[in-house]
Amino acid sequence: xxxxxxxxxxxxxxxxxxxxxxxxxxxxxxxxxxxxxxxxxxxxxxxxxxxxxxxxxxxxxxxxxxxxxxxxxxxxxxxxxxxxxxxxxxxxxxxxxxxxxxxxxxxxxxxxxxxxxxxxxxxxxxxxxxxxxxxxxxxxxxxxxxxxxxxxxxxxxxxxxxxxxxxxxxxxxxxxxxxxxxxxxxxxxxxxxxxxxxxxxxxxxxxxxxxxxxxxxxxxxxxxxxxxxxxxxxxxxxxxxxxxxxxxxxxxxxxxxxxxxxxxxxxxxxxxx
Length: 273
Ligand code: ATR
Hints:
This protein is α/β, with parallel strands linked by helices and 273 residues long. It has helices spanning 16-27, 43-52, 65-71, 77-82, 102-113, 130-141, 154-164, 225-232, 242-257, 264-272; strands spanning 2-8, 31-37, 57-60, 74-75, 87-90, 96-99, 122-126, 146-151, 172-177, 187-190, 213-216, 237-239. The strands form 2 sheets. Strands 2-1-3-5-6-4 form a 6-stranded mixed beta sheet, sandwiched between helices.
């Protein structure tokens, strides 16, 4: 069987082995997918060793996505802009190729699975770290009318606006300090890591209206801290990052195997067990 894995630190809670095993079973592809914990200083060695032993593809997760991007010999266009890679493989000449499927995963989950279109909408994204940078390209490709990047540290949001102005097209792209955001939004995406500490980004409640759809890129069992806040403030619909997790995995699987697996049954399976 061809061998795949996810590499991270820590890695024991990763859902990727389960997701890819379900994809393999559902598509009839003969592959094995495991989890590898790389020591914090040894991503490069771990990756090279995996491919040297015949491994076919790696997913990369926290905290290694930037480093995986750096060590690659070549990057897809979307990975180049994302500054991070969650998907690695080798080409026929043995060069290490980095791709990034996180942004496509988010947008596919919003648009295809949930019927939430970004086109022409007022969109607010909270956070300006690696997770947000990784999804901005695919979000802008949907051509929202407006995209506000709001962050606790304004300078990081401004840096992202500068980096992505050439992809903004007709979208009004701007940076704000998170406490300075005003007005209502059609779609709010939380890309901060605040929920990891059970914290909320300090954004005004006026951003949420009864028509607002909220997407927390984070996934935890039950309702995430941010989504609970949004529901308490009247949001019509809240979505969490499980769909994004499964969709980014499906896109990696497609890159490696040339087949796109069904995702909704896998989401249902993970949600229910
Ligand atoms: P990641 O790769 O998950 O994006 P990161 O680069 O450390 O990780 O970025 C974390 C993001 O969450 C940042 O936007 C951070 O805001 P700062 O840039 O001001 O640090 C945001 N964040 C983390 N904890 C937060 C909190 N308690 N309140 C508001 N924002 C928070």
